[in-house]
Amino acid sequence: MSLNKSLKNMGFRKNLKKGEVVFRENDPSDCAYIVGVGAIEICKKTPRGQKVLKVLGDNEIFGEMGLIDGLPRSATARARQDSVVYILTSLEQNLNVLTPAEFVFLENRKRDGVYNHETREKLYSIIEKLQRGKRNNSREEKKLYKIFRDANFGILLDKNSRTREKIIHSGKVQILAKFEGEIIAQAVLIEKTASIAAAIAAEVVMCKGKVFGEIRATYKIKIVKGAKVIGYIQTPKFIIEKGAAFDGRCSMPSAKKPGPLHLLREALRKTG
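-> structure tokens emitted (272 positions)
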């Protein structure tokens, strides 16, 4: 049984007709929901009327921020078609260690997802709490801990992140904003909004933004349309799409098997 199915067993079932509202924007928040069957659309008021932000399907959780921050609903949820949802108001009765907010916050994440510093710190603190209290964990908490005990959350560098630092991470690093420094990781994704002056070492690097510096990848570097790289590249496999720009020097040694971080770090120190 999946974790969300076990969550359904803890909630009250509610049948919804197409167009029926689950909650409205600015309503008080006191519970979360899981879509059992059907589709729920999340809408927000705009000067031009209601705008659909996203549509949720089977087993997806929504409204969990109400458990986390207790603030009024930030959007409206309504049934896109005849649907069934489960109301997680009885969650607390099935937990021994975590609060409902902590449980839903962790359960709704991916063990290899990419998150900013604040979210990662909170996720790891919840996992640590489960580890410390594992003798008292309920059945649902044990299932959650089993899924996330070895989680390796990726690092998301957004506009609120530090712009100058050295990052060494065994997973993914995704960059959305300006950054200066050094990155050593398993995979690096440089988004369209990013502007980077850095030395990067990874197994795989995909660039959609701007990079000034050097990139070394033990497997592959890809520069997509609209991206710009100025500097030095070293990789056995280099893909540059039409419409992308590269100005610099490129070295293409024979492919190496992906290695631990200390090998990537050593590769970064070597000159081209």
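The CA atoms of residues 62 and 95 lie 20 Å apart.
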